[in-house]
Design brief:
With 253 residues, the protein is of the alpha/beta class. The protein has two domains: 122 residues, Periplasmic binding protein-like II (D-Maltodextrin-Binding Protein, domain 2, 3-Layer(aba) Sandwich), CATH 3.40.190.10; 99 residues, Periplasmic binding protein-like II (D-Maltodextrin-Binding Protein, domain 2), CATH 3.40.190. Helix content is 37%, strand content 23%. The chain contains nine helices and eleven strands. A six-stranded mixed sheet has the order 2-1-3-10-4-11. Helix 2 runs antiparallel to helix 9. It is elongated, with a radius of gyration of 23 Å. It starts with a helix and ends with a strand.
Length: 253
């Protein structure tokens, strides 16, 4: 009896200290993010989930404009990581971003890519006049497409381009170039770095397009606001920014 009483006392003390506590109920967070972030964010989520067993991250990747529209229409999203400030501006204006959580986290670059074995001899943006077809993202919904068009207009070669194939996001542009369905495409540097089937022919100067900034924010109507803030804090941490930089992004912290 003495032994049993002692054991019971130990168990009670352990519980008071938090030992033996049952893990909390698993919470699933939905993060809408620009598709150009996919490689880095997948790695970040894997690291985060190792440390936070009760929080599972589900990404909804796509063009920032389309994601912003989904959130505006009431889609159940917990965090938004955009590839353009104007998409975040729109949500913030409508009161959909949790106050104090918007952070301009990283930047990117716009590059001209061509198929690895291309014989078109396209080496600069000016050489696009030689191309029969090029691809960019739809400027109204794909930030990379907007920056691409701005670059070509600034350089005075937009009108010289024979045919433009518009894509739903930068990954589709990359696919068109990889399969040589177009002679060239304009994508983010981070996307080009992840492909072995394209080569970077040229990089757009910063003064040829608007600033490329990726803001992040917590959605005000998140059903899991506490957990969303936990992942948000992890996303803006130095550890996560290091991962983003490894994938080619530029820290703005």
């Amino acid at each position: 009896m003495v032994v049993l009483t002692a054991l019971a006392g130990c168990v009670k003390n352990d519980r008071q200290r938090g030992n033996g506590k049952k893990p909390g109920k698993e919470v699933e967070l939905t993060v809408s993010a620009a598709i150009s972030l996919q490689g880095a964010l997948d790695e970040i989520a894997a690291n985060f989930e190792k440390e936070n067993k009760n929080i599972k991250i589900n990404y909804n990747y796509g063009a920032s404009g389309a994601l912003q529209q989904q959130i505006s229409q009431g889609a159940p999203v917990d965090l938004f990581f955009s590839a353009a400030t104007d998409k975040m501006d729109a949500l913030e204006k409508d009161g959909l971003i949790e106050k104090g959580t918007r952070v301009e986290l990283v930047g990117n670059e716009i590059v001209l890519v061509v198929p690895k074995n291309s014989k078109k001899n396209i080496k600069t943006f000016e050489d696009l006049a030689k191309a029969d077809r090029i691809s960019i993202g739809t400027p109204e919904t794909v930030p990379a497409g907007k920056y691409a068009k701005e670059t070509l207009e600034t350089l005075g070669i937009w009108q010289a381009v024979k045919e433009v194939v518009y894509a739903k996001d930068v990954r589709q542009v990359l696919t068109y170039v990889e399969t040589a369905n177009v002679d060239a495409g304009i994508v983010y540097k981070t996307d080009a770095m992840g492909s072995k089937k394209v080569g970077i022919a040229d990089t757009a100067a910063e003064n040829t397009h608007g600033p490329i900034v990726y803001p992040i924010g917590v959605i005000k109507d998140s059903r899991h606001l506490k957990e969303a803030r936990v992942f948000y804090d992890y996303l803006i941490s130095d550890e996560s920014v290091d991962v983003l930089e490894k994938h080619g992004f530029k820290s703005l912290k």
